[in-house]
Amino acid sequence: MRIGEDPAVDIWMADNLPKEASVGVDPWCISIDTAQRWERAFAEKQQKLVPTSKNLVDEVWINRPPAEINAVIVHPVKFAGRSVADKLKDLRKKLVHEQTRGIIFTALDEVAWLYNIRGSDVAYCPVVHAFAIVTSNSAFIYVDKQKVSVEVQTHLVENGIEIQEYTAVSSDATLLATDELDAVSTAKAALAETEARKIPSEIDKSVNGEHQAEENSNDLIWADPVSCCYALYAKLNPDTVLLQQSPLALAKALKNSVELDGLKKAHIRDGAAVVQYLVWLDKKMQDIYGASGYFLEKDSVKKEKHLQSLKLTEVTVSDQLEGFRASKEHFKGLSFPTISSVGSNAAIIHYFPKAETCAELDPDKIYLFDSGAQYLDGTTDITRTVHFGKPSTHEKACYTAVLKGHIALGNARFPNGTNGHSLDILARIPLWKDGLDYRHGTGHGIGSYLNVHEGPHLISFRPQARNVPLQSSMTVTDEPGYYEDGEFGIRLENVLIVKEADTTFNFGDRGYLSFEHITWAPYQTKLIDLNLLSPEEINWLNSYHATCRNILAPYLDEVENAWLKKATEPVGA
After folding, report:
1. Are 366 and 392 in a shared domain?
2. How far does Cα 34 stand from its chain's mean position?
3. What is the pLDDT of residues 434-450, one digit of tens each?
């Protein structure tokens, strides 16, 4: 079943089940929005949604491995850029503004961001399995206490956060609904302990004192319908719930100066790792497969068979790329499984190679790698497409069209209030001119040592891209592509920062925005048909390559710098 082509799950079920059928669902595993949408679809056929008290898969899962106990860690302000106290203060102002007295957080990256903690409970995402509830006067985290060290406990308690067991969120949601949560004795004990520890008055005031002095007579509870699970919503009075996007979604997307600086530094180190990888791969492709290499356009020369024992696969080379990244400062792991794809596999947008079935590298086919890493000071995501043999005229034309779209979006200037839906077309126009396109969005936000895909904004043809305008200090990727089924795939991706634009005029006093590239790795010039680039595009390419060469030089050795110098030589007249 293909999303967008086949009927949605709820529509299919409603059409294929008999009238008055009951559809059981684990309410912890679907959002409020999904549950309500399904209820509406089923009601048209006199069907109903039935929350189950137990997960039926869990009931039959024999020998299920126990949950891992991964330690929670404190994310220092030197990387986070803002204190928990400041974040809670801003959040509580928003609660008052929306006439609410409490809010439930179930999105793991929001809990991590708000409380300045990180973890390793989800592969590739430095988050913790936890819930959070914040009221006008109190803050709670629901987490397996075995994961909480003394250091983390001190960090949380000093910021007025009550640590509760993970499973207690259900009963506390009920207390929140009846306005009894703030009166729970454990919360009072936590506040008393905070005072006993003589936390600096500034923190104490901003977290507890100031807000305890305020009376909040509002009766609404805030829940994000897209991220909050239906099970917790069911504990609340639906008439007193504000169903609205979480206030942390936008707050988290608007990076502070420390986060922006960290992201820039992380991308420089990451770019150095990518260049080191390309240098290594270029040599290996020539030595093992007789490829003409990264720079020359010649047919490969077949090597002696004994060298085939050294063959390179999509997995073995991606492991090497991870090794280069792992040598960099603040490296904590990959930000998603590397998409390392050769030839026809590159045409599969979200291809995931497996050691047992992956392809061997081929000097006569395009190679696409989409990869990223988690560093303490930032998260990265980059895609480059290369050819180590002789690319066809068609492959060059397609690569150049993708590059033109990539440049067009990255160079855009646009008024405040512009959303990603309006900008998406810029990356597609060069492809549309040749009757080409791609079936994925063009850009997504990036976390700051958090999820590699972050909203609420995005650049896409999808309707939800209209919901949130791009704003200064947001991050977003620029990643157009083209995929020819059974043949090859091309994608180019950089991370951009949205910034204020210095325009000659300011029509309507709206203010204008532009983008700043923070990803640094060369584009393969032998894949570019320079006749298809405008003088302005050639100037941009040469300028980007010059910056790339200069900014990465301190992180590379003599051989690597010589390779990069050649890869970034000016092109065109």
Report:
1. yes
2. 22
3. 999 999 999 999 999 99
